[in-house]
Amino acid sequence: MEKIKKEHIVDYLRATILAILLPVFLSGNVNAQQLSLAEKSVSSLGAENDALKLLQGNFDVKETIWSSPTSGPVYNTKLIARRQMIGSVLQEFMYAAPGTANSPVERIEYISFNRIEGRWRSISMDIRVPVGLMPAASFDRGQEGKIRLIFDPFPIAGKGSSVTGQMLRMDETINFKDPDHVIKEQHFILADGSGRSWLAHRYEYTKRK
To answer: Residue 147 in contact with residue 164, Cβ under 8 Å?
Structure first.
């Protein structure tokens, strides 16, 4: 029963993400005869989204977690990421090993460069933690092979039996200068008045040959 419920949740959230993203990211599916020259230009991948094509494939992932500024690292090496381009969007599904079709999905992410806004946009979800959909965007186009995304603040569940929470801010740096070895680092800041930032998550991707 638990497995069925989990699969239903994943299917629902996957459909929700696609419903949000498709009208924004996949405007290139509109009949080309209806597009202006500017729209045709924007619908092309451009240099930024063309670079995402190099990140397609299957990756072994090492996850490192620091649950607080003073916590030691906890490692998870049993993750596999599958990436593919959908139009101008890079889709990533992260699975628990061995990464077969029946393995549980741990994380879903979509990322693309919006050529009109001149910045990166992404939306992700992690079914291991009850935080819902996590939209993010960069301030600008960033550096070649490196992206910094600022996430909308979101609540994390509090302790105890009652439904409480605490707001959290997060930024993520993606380094893909070597497309076969990608590193994502996520820094957290809790809304506790301290203003203290710490490296909370690191994902290290190694492409399978």
So the answer is: no
DSSP string spanning 45-63? -HHHHHHHGGG-EEEEEEE
- Find, among 138, 142, 73, 63, the residue nearest to 96 by Cα: 63
Tell how far CA 96 is from the center of its chain.
16
In terms of Cα–Cα distance, which of 25, 41, 26, 52 is closest to 144?
A: 52
Phi, psi of 37 (to 5 degrees): -60, -40
Each residue of 31-59: pLDDT tens digit?
545 777 766 666 678 899 999 999 999 99
Q: Which amino acid is at 173?
A: T
Extract the tokens encoding 161: 């039996």
How long is the chain? 209
Q: What tens digit of pLDDT does each residue of 139-160 get?
A: 999 888 999 999 999 988 888 7
How would you label 47-78 residue by residue, b for 16+ Cβ within 10 Å and e otherwise? ebbebbeebbeebbbebbebeeeeeeeeeeeb
pTM for the model: 0.79
Q: Which residues contact residue 161 at a Cβ distance below 8 angstroms, ignoring those fewer than 6 apart?
A: none
* Chain centre distance of CA 106: 12
